[in-house]
Write a structure and sequence with these properties.
Layout: H1 2-17, H2 34-41, E1 46-49, E2 54-60, E3 67-74, E4 77-85, H3 93-99, E5 111-112, E6 118-120, E7 128-132, E8 137-141, H4 147-154
Length: about 160
């Protein structure tokens, strides 16, 4: 009896301690290979080699809620991702960022445009974050030219 109670407590604590990353989490997309992304999100609706350096992948309805995911791979390493939250009406920045594993930045944006778009550059470990409430887009990118970003990509 004691062992079954301890067994149940162990599994309960193990389940509580492991929080799954959101399917569309930025850290599960950027710095990943095309094969890793296909394993995570399934086969893309669009897979186009634009040059020897750049490949574009796009999933329409990547999460079952009409969220489009557009990724640019540079040398088969995801360096840019744009999410389009098609069904989010009205657009909610905090909710959109939560769905990709981020939270609203505490610092003021580096740039604000007339349509309400905002850009944070730099944004934490990323080169930039852009949120456009009119088009329901969220973009996060790496600066692949910087030494620090290359080191992150190599991990």
């Amino acid at each position: 009896m004691k062992s079954s109670i301890l067994f149940a407590i162990f599994f309960f604590l193990a389940a509580c301690g492991r929080e799954e990353a959101p399917l569309l989490a930025v850290h599960q997309i950027l710095n990943k290979t095309g094969a890793t992304l296909k394993e995570r999100l399934g086969e893309p609706d669009f897979d186009f080699v634009r040059s020897a350096k750049v490949t574009t992948l796009q999933w329409r309805d990547a999460d079952g809620d009409s969220t489009w995911v557009y990724v640019d791979l540079i040398h088969d390493n995801a360096s840019y991702v744009t999410y389009t939250f098609k069904k989010m009406d009205p657009f909610d920045t905090a909710a959109a960022l939560r769905r990709i594993g981020l939270s609203v930045p505490e610092q003021e944006p580096e740039q604000v445009w007339e349509n309400g778009s905002k850009r944070w550059k730099p944004f934490g470990q990323y080169h930039r974050l852009v949120v456009n409430p009119v088009t329901k887009l969220v973009t996060v990118s790496l600066d692949i030219e910087s030494e620090a970003q290359r080191e992150i990509a190599e991990k």
